[in-house]
Design goal:
It is a single chain. The chain has 273 residues and is α/β, with parallel strands linked by helices. 36% of the residues lie in helices and 20% in strands. Helix 5 links the parallel strand 2 and strand 3. Helix 2 runs parallel beside helix 5. The longest helix is centred in the first third of the chain and has 14 residues. It is globular, with a radius of gyration of 18 Å. The structure holds S-adenosylmethionine. The site of S-adenosylmethionine has 23 residues, from strand 2.
């Protein structure tokens, strides 16, 4: 995965424009796992400085400002930061890459959030760089919340031709068939982009069993993402010097500390230094 591929995807006018829609009246939790994780993190982080990493256009901004008034947003895509500034002209937002946060000092934040699987844009080895930077920026009692896609969940191995998502059983429903056909008729260019992006990415798919790199169906299969497993993410977080408080599946359930595996779509991790 080239370093700049995903930055170009998220910095493209089309993707940045799609994210503008996510803020404003449709603000809200991405899924129940995110909601459970932020509720779990809130009491320890209340009133402390918050860093919202990979903010996009600010879907998480109102949610995090309920936890603290001291709020800073960053994103490595300048177009996303512009979109954020249009939505929240009074708040601080910087263009910055989670792999190198040299502009911030040690122990500046009580809570760092990298939501919506943003960490999955970087390579397997770079994930520990990102967590290392987060650890440096957090206070001694600081809390980290981030979400990450599961290799054993339905977002891994999707194709533009599938009748059902991986790990999910195919069940025919006339309503679903009409919606699927209608969506493709409404956006034929999107279908072409999906097939083209998926086709050109398929030879770069790298499946190591405990983690993988593969295209993601969102944004017409343009992002090429990292997918973890429960054992891989536990190792990542603990090797970076964090203690895991909780891991939530996207349905809001807790993944037990001894669970060997999970078919959740993604995990949201709550961890401390
Ligand atoms: C899936 S979008 C989510 C945006 C927003 N957090 C939301 O939930 O709507 C991921 C965001 O993370 C940003 N991003 C990805 N990798 C990043 C990195 N290494 N440093 C900073 N931002 C990054 C992307 O530009 C994009 O805006």
């Amino acid at each position: 995965m080239s370093t700049d591929h995903n930055r170009n995807v998220f910095d493209s006018a089309r993707v940045a424009a799609a994210y503008v829609e996510y803020a404003g009246p449709t603000d809200g939790f991405l899924d129940r796992g995110e909601a459970a994780a932020l509720v779990a993190a809130a009491s320890g982080a209340r009133g402390t400085p918050v860093l919202d990493v990979g903010v996009g256009s600010g879907r998480t901004t109102a949610l995090l400002r309920l936890i603290s008034d001291q709020y800073v947003a960053i994103d490595y895509a300048p177009n996303m930061v512009d979109a954020f500034r249009r939505n929240f002209p009074d708040l601080q937002a910087n263009v910055a890459d989670a792999r190198n946060l040299a502009d911030f000092g040690d122990g500046e934040f009580g809570l760092i959030v990298f939501s919506n699987n943003g960490i999955d844009t970087v390579t397997h080895d770079e994930r520990s760089l990102v967590l290392g930077e987060f650890r440096r920026l957090l206070t001694e009692s600081g809390v980290l919340v981030f979400s990450t896609l599961n290799r054993n969940g339905p977002s891994f191995g999707e194709t533009p031709f599938q009748l059902s998502r991986p790990t999910q059983r195919f069940r025919f429903s006339p309503r679903r068939a009409v919606t699927a056909v209608g969506r493709r008729l409404l956006d034929p260019a999107g279908v072409v982009r999906s097939v083209r992006n998926w086709w050109s990415a398929r030879s770069r798919i790298d499946d190591r069993g405990s983690w993988a790199l593969a295209p993601l169906a969102a944004h017409d299969f343009a992002p090429f993402m990292h997918f973890t497993t429960i054992s891989d993410v536990r190792t990542l977080v603990t090797d970076a010097g964090f203690t895991i408080d909780e891991i939530f599946a996207d349905d809001g359930s807790m993944v037990p500390p001894d669970a060997p595996d999970s078919t959740a779509d993604n995990f949201t991790i709550v961890a401390r230094k």
